[in-house]
Amino acid sequence: MNTVLVTGASSGFGKAICQKLIADGYKVIGAARRVDKLSELARQLDDNFLPFQLDVTKKDAVENLLLSLPDKFKPIDILINNAGLALGMEPAYEANYADWEIMVNTNIIGLMHLTRIILPEMVKRNSGYIINLGSTAGNYAYQGGNVYGATKAFVKQFSANLRTDLLGKKIRVTNIEPGLCGNTEFSNVRFHGNGKQAAAVYQGVEFIKPEDIANTVSWLVNSPKHFNVNNIEIMPTAQASGGLKVIKNM
Ligand SMILES: NC(=O)c1ccc[n+]([C@@H]2O[C@H](COP(=O)([O-])OP(=O)(O)OC[C@H]3O[C@@H](n4cnc5c(N)ncnc54)[C@H](OP(=O)(O)O)[C@@H]3O)[C@@H](O)[C@H]2O)c1
């Protein structure tokens, strides 16, 4: 039975991915900072789920995860780099710089920590799968997307470069690029707990749900090993790129 490490398991996509992969018969390590949320999830799942408190921005803590895993959950066969966040939607000239630093530290540096620490073991075994949670924000610019979109463009290019470094090895890499998804904490976090502003994002839209992303992950990890999906971009039918705008008579 394969073992999967899912970061950002306390909420949204990560939580749904843990639920789905446990149902599929995997052993799952669910990592996040909020232990209460992880314990609540552990109560719903069986003992093939291991809750693990982890802040992905702390390199020592990521190293410690590998060292302190019980034998049952070793080795990690599949890494799902899902932990991430957007903070703020102000234009770049008004954005909170501390928010920018947190996004870079989590979405880029945190993902680098997990990948650099876990990948060598996969290479030694010549087997493994890394699934990264990018975003359509890494593909299309939008107002207020500035650093968040740039972190997800990093995730896209890093995923592609990993594929290149791993050519000739039996290790797969996929970047999942979701558009507008609801029923997660994403917008509550982005708007610093302003529930009204967060709710407005989803009003009147049939959005993608965490279960849709979890089903996509399940399809990917259960697909044949000779088959690599490089990128998968998923949007609600109600969303598409609006094209380039021109402001007349500026
Ligand atoms: N929802 C969307 O519309 C959307 C669209 C495209 C891409 N995405 C991406 O999908 C991923 C999951 O988002 P979501 O919508 O499921 O959001 P969410 O409900 O807010 O979940 C984010 C998860 O990341 C964890 N996390 C944040 N900082 C962390 C840190 N420093 N260390 C460890 N875990 C951390 C959170 O757990 P703790 O707070 O407990 O640590 C939480 O479990 C993110 O990478 C996001 O950028 C989301």
From TrEMBL:
Pfam families, A to Z: adh_short
Keyword match Oxidoreductase: yes
What GO molecular function annotations does the UniProt record carry, in alphabetical order?
oxidoreductase activity, acting on the CH-OH group of donors, NAD or NADP as acceptor
Stored PANTHER family: ALCOHOL DEHYDROGENASE (PTHR42901)
Record keywords:
Oxidoreductase
Mind telling me what this protein is named? NADP-dependent 3-hydroxy acid dehydrogenase
Q: Which family does it belong to?
A: Belongs to the short-chain dehydrogenases/reductases (SDR) family.
Query: Known SUPFAM superfamilies for this protein?
Result: NAD(P)-binding Rossmann-fold domains
Q: Which domain of life is it from?
A: Bacteria
- Nucleotide-binding found in the keyword field: no
Q: Which residues form the signal peptide?
A: none
